[in-house]
Write a structure and sequence with these properties.
By secondary structure, the protein is of the alpha+beta class. It has helices at 2-35, 127-131, 164-171; strands at residues 116-119, 136-144, 150-158, 175-177, 179-181, 184-186, 188-197.
Length: 201
C-alpha cells in the first residue's frame, strides 16, 4: 500500500518537473520570436498609362446625292395658231349589232354537258373513330340539283356506323356543274361517291 503511494508521488513529481521545463522552453523561444525583425517582401509593379487618345474628329454624314432634275413642263399648245382651213379626215362611226338575244333560262348561255364536280369538301374525322384508330369508308348516294347543290344524301354502305353522319355532312357541301340539256339545267339522281377515312401518319 505504501509502495503505491511512494511510486505515484515520484511519477507525479517527474511529470510536473517535465511540464515546467517545457513551459520554460516555450516562453524563451516565444520571446525571441517577438523580438526578431520579420522579413518583409516588397511588391514591385509598373503602372501602364491608358491610351486615352480619343478621336475627336467631327464625323459628319455624307450629303445625299442631288435628285435628278425635273424636266421642264411642255408649254400649252396655242390654240389660236391652228389653221381652221386645214384638211380634215372623215371617219365613219363603227356599226354596232343590237341583237343581244342569248339562249338559256334567265338569259344565260349555259353550255351543254353532263354534271361535273367543282368543290369537294373533306369530311371531319369522327372523334370516337379516331380514338379507336378506326379507318374505313362510306359509299354515298345523293341528288344533284339544277343549281349544282347536293340534296338527299344516303349512306348505301359504311364499314362503320361512326362514319355515316360525317360522310353525309361532307357530301351536302359538295358543289357540281349541273347537267344541261337543251340549255336547261337538269336534276341528276343516283349520284354515287365514296368518302374515305384514313388516319395519316
Amino acid at each position: 500500500m505504501y509502495k503505491r503511494y511512494i511510486y505515484s508521488i515520484i511519477v507525479g513529481t517527474t511529470i510536473t518537473v517535465g511540464l515546467l521545463f517545457v513551459m520554460q522552453l516555450l516562453i524563451a523561444s516565444g520571446k525571441s520570436a517577438l523580438t526578431e525583425p520579420r522579413a518583409r517582401h516588397l511588391l514591385e509593379f509598373v503602372r501602364v498609362r491608358r491610351n486615352e487618345n480619343v478621336n475627336t474628329e467631327d464625323l459628319t454624314p455624307e450629303k445625299p446625292p442631288k435628285p435628278p432634275e425635273v424636266p421642264q413642263e411642255m408649254p400649252p399648245q396655242d390654240m389660236d395658231s391652228i389653221d381652221p382651213n386645214a384638211p380634215t379626215i372623215a371617219i365613219p362611226p363603227p356599226t354596232v349589232n343590237n341583237n343581244l338575244n342569248i339562249g338559256g333560262p334567265g338569259g344565260m348561255n349555259i353550255a351543254e354537258g353532263d354534271y361535273l364536280p367543282i368543290v369537294r369538301v373533306a369530311p371531319i374525322y369522327p372523334a370516337r373513330a379516331l380514338s379507336r384508330n378506326l379507318e374505313g369508308y362510306c359509299d354515298m348516294n345523293f341528288t344533284v340539283t339544277p343549281a349544282g347543290t347536293v340534296i338527299d344524301p344516303v349512306a348505301e354502305f359504311c364499314t362503320s356506323s361512326l362514319f355515316e353522319r360525317s360522310s353525309a355532312r361532307a357530301v351536302t357541301k359538295f358543289k357540281y356543274k349541273p347537267r344541261v340539256v337543251d340549255g336547261i339545267p337538269q336534276t341528276v339522281t343516283g349520284v354515287r361517291t365514296r368518302i374515305t377515312f384514313k388516319i395519316e401518319d
